[in-house]
């Protein structure tokens, strides 16, 4: 019988080199983490310092004012909520069904890999391209900007995020659960609905919340689709106010009161997106 391997000596040059490399990589990782947290804290602190004075109850119940007058962002908030809600309601079912096909039915053949590749391209595509696409196929055809056009653009941004999260979460469901249900004579659609969806529910919901967080601050597609409205409007078939475009216009204006409202709107969106991301990761981390 051969003797057991002797432990590596602490003065072994290979061991010292590996330990040094490990410490170096840990240090670089900690440095990058600290850098990311530093910039995030700086951005949030800047937004709160510049827009904190305008974060008041009036911001939530008064509409956007003319120059030199007091007001809030009620019409912009309502317009953003309407378009984000419609875009999420349109994009979520499409994304969940597409992700379900990729994970459960498209395991063979070329269609699923091609769809995943195209979904990754759409996921990384600049949002302004989506806005130009909706402008060409919808706005230019009906002859006017509208909340519906903005919602359609946001729905296209929602779809790839939900497809990716649904595909990944269903892929984590153990095959033993599917096999056990199939052994009991359960058809595949029942396996998907009553077993796979329930097992992956937390991950799918997290993906939907992250998609909502992504579209909450999108400006470029709304410039080509919903445009803006200075007044309160619930008509989705006409130009409608929204927070990102109002922030863009007010930040570039020469009026100090509008600049203050732009900072307040930016702080509001940032806190909303940050809250959604924290909630998605804390409530559904299991």
Automatic annotation (TrEMBL):
Keywords of this entry: Cell membrane, Membrane, Phosphate transport, Transmembrane, Transmembrane helix, Transport
Residues that span the membrane, as ranges: 24-49, 73-97, 117-139, 145-163, 204-227, 261-280
Protein name: Phosphate transport system permease protein PstA
ABC transmembrane type-1 domain: residues covered: 77-280
Topology of the protein relative to the lipid bilayer: Multi-pass membrane protein
Localization (cell): Cell inner membrane; Cell membrane
One Gene Ontology MF term: phosphate transmembrane transporter activity
The keyword Cell membrane is assigned to this record: yes
Pfam families linked to this entry: BPD_transp_1
Similarity comment: family membership: Belongs to the binding-protein-dependent transport system permease family. CysTW subfamily.
SUPFAM superfamilies: MetI-like
Example of a GO cellular component annotation carried by this entry: plasma membrane
GO biological process: phosphate ion transmembrane transport
InterPro entries: MetI-like (IPR000515), MetI-like_sf (IPR035906), Phosphate_PstA (IPR005672), Phosphate_transprt_permease (IPR051408)
């Amino acid at each position: 019988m051969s003797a057991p391997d002797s432990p590596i000596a602490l003065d072994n040059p290979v061991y010292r080199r590996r330990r040094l490399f490990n410490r170096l990589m840990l240090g670089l990782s900690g440095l990058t983490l600290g850098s990311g947290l530093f910039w995030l804290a700086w951005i949030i602190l800047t937004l709160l310092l510049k827009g904190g004075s305008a974060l008041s109850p009036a911001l939530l119940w008064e509409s956007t004012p003319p120059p030199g007058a007091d007001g809030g962002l009620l019409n912009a908030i309502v317009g953003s909520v309407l378009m984000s809600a419609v875009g999420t309601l349109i994009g979520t079912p499409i994304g969940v069904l597409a992700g379900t096909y990729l994970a459960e039915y498209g395991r063979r053949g070329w269609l699923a890999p091609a769809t995943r590749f195209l979904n990754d391209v759409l996921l990384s595509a600049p949002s302004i391209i989506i806005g130009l696409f909706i402008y060409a196929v919808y706005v230019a055809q009906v002859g006017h900007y509208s909340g519906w056009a903005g919602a359609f653009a946001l729905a296209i941004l929602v779809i790839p995020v939900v497809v990716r999260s649904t595909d990944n979460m269903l892929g984590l469901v153990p095959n033993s659960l599917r096999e056990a249900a199939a052994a009991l004579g359960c058809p595949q659609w029942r396996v998907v609905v009553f077993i796979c969806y329930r097992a992956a529910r937390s991950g799918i919901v997290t993906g939907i919340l992250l998609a909502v967080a992504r579209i909450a601050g999108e400006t470029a597609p709304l410039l080509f689709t919903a445009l803006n409205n200075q007044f309160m409007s619930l008509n989705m078939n006409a130009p409608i106010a929204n927070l990102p475009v109002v922030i863009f216009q007010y930040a570039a204006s020469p009026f100090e009161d509008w600049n203050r409202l732009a900072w307040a709107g930016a702080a509001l969106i940032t806190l909303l997106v940050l809250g959604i991301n924290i909630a998605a990761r804390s409530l559904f981390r299991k």
